[in-house]
Amino acid sequence: MEQLAIEAGELSRRYGSRWSLARLNLKVKLGERFLIVGGNGSGKTTLLRLLSTALPRSGGTLSIFGIDPEVSRQDVRSSLGLLSHQSAIWEDLSGSENLEILARLVGVSINTQALLAKVKLESRPDPVSTYSAGMRKRLAFARLLLQRPRLALIDEPYGQLDPEGFDLVDSLVDELIDGGSTVVMASHLVERAAKKCDRALLLEAGQERW
Q: 0.70 exceeded by the pTM?
């Protein structure tokens, strides 16, 4: 039997009278790299927020590792790692201090400097408030690696990064997969992201196109 990380049936989300996502059917296999593409307003971020349990659905069914988020949200959340445009970072602390606090919160032991080296931030002891947008994205990836999620949800993984950063993201996604994660990401850089993914979903006005 096919093992699934995500299964959705006619999944829908409405804001007032507008349907942001309409009757989406979706299956993502365990260990798969899955890409969501589409223009602005297509429903990509809404879908990621539904998968992350940040939004309740307006209709349809959703199962994450066999669990309905609306039945046991905490069980689902404990298996997730989310990298979004609003990743929680403590501005007045250094990157190392950010990771140390998160490690204590999730109950894992880490080599902070080794993890920062993976994202090319080992030489930055200053507060995160001094970081560029690209450096913040690198730190967000370090946080995701630290969490070791069964399901990693990534919104615009290449955003705020230069070409060298693109290569770094690809290697970090490889590490997530090698560590046993399933990865779902939404990106405007279709050609780049498609090279790293097993399958893709095109959304247009909240509906699947291919």
A: yes
The dihedrals phi and psi of 127, each to the nearest 5 degrees, come to -60, 150
Q: Note whether 150 and 79 are within 8 A (CB).
A: yes
Nearest to 4 by CA among 150, 147, 146, 144: 150
Which residues, at least 6 apart from 49, have a Cβ–Cβ distance to it below 8 Å?
55
C-alpha 166/C-alpha 138 separation (Å) is 11
Residue 62, beta-bridge partner list: 8
User: In this structure, what are the phi and psi dihedrals at residue 146, rounded to the nearest 5 degrees?
Assistant: -60, -40
Cβ–Cβ < 8 Å for 6, 61: no
Assess contact for 5 and 64: CB atoms under 8 A.
yes
Cα–Cα distance measured from residue 188 to residue 38, given in angstroms and rounded to the nearest whole number: 7
**What are the b/e assignments for 173-184, b being 16+ CB within 10 Å?**
beebbeeebbbb
Tokens of residue 4, six digits: 């699934």
pLDDT in tens, 38-72: 888 899 999 999 999 999 999 999 999 999 999 99
Alpha-carbon separation of residue 19 from 57, 59, 104, 143 (angstroms): 11, 11, 40, 33
The answer to whether 115 and 146 are in contact (CB under 8 A) is yes
CA–CA dist 85, 129 (Å, integer): 16
